[in-house]
Amino acid sequence: MDSITLKGRITNQMTDEEFFWFCQENKELRIERNSHLEIILMSPTNSFSGKINTEILRQLSNWNFEKKRGEVFDSSTGFTLPDRSILSPDASWISSEKWNALTANEQNSFAPTCPEFIIEVRSKSDSLEYLQSKMKNWIANGTQLAWLIDPIEKTTTIYKTNDLEEKISGFDTKIIAASPIEGFILNLMLIKL
Predict the structure, then answer these.
(1) Which listed site, 13, 157, 169, 187, has its alpha carbon 20 to 30 Å from 38?
(2) Residue 193 confidence (pLDDT)
(3) How far apart are CA 95 and CA 69, in angstroms?
(4) Which CATH code, of 3.30.200.20, 3.40.640.10, 3.40.50.300, 3.90.1570.10, is assigned to 46-190?
(5) Separation of alpha carbons 87 and 30, rounded Å
(6) Entry pTM
(7) What are phi and psi of 9, to 5 degrees?
(8) Of all residues in the chain, what percent carry a pLDDT higher than 90?
(9) How crowded is the C-beta side of 105, counted as CA atoms within 13 Å?
(10) What's the pLDDT tens digit per position in 161-193?
(11) CA dihedral 40, 166, 63, 188 (to 10 degrees)
């Protein structure tokens, strides 16, 4: 299953809290909501993608542990963006200042904030066009830096708030991050393909 999109009167009228509980009651699925309030049902991540996601998350978490500048989140974390979409990147980072500004209730839901940095990893079932559109949506909602890692094409595309995109070919390199996570280096050579 690639994905199934649910749309109509019921999804359009679902409150953020109702959507949150819908996701809690269907934990076996990856569920997102787009800005049109359509619900997107996706199958769980395949094992290969999960392995790549784990290595990326390990590197980001290690950097964050050392710097102590924010919080790192995995692919099961949903965020409510300004356009009302609720998305779950494969890895994300939020500064301590932004995270601590949220109430305890907001932190215990799909937090109404946009991560400053996100990473999405393309799996075999993902449409490249859909992911490219999703990356632009992240930036439009406030993400400052976003990386789309494509193990199929062996490319990484870097998205920034100034609409500039940079493509890096091959996985025999390291990606050095800019603001807001300057100092983070993702070693693509550690991603076993």
Answers:
(1) 157
(2) 63
(3) 6
(4) 3.90.1570.10
(5) 10
(6) 0.92
(7) -60, -40
(8) 76
(9) 2
(10) 877 789 999 999 999 999 999 999 999 999 866
(11) 90
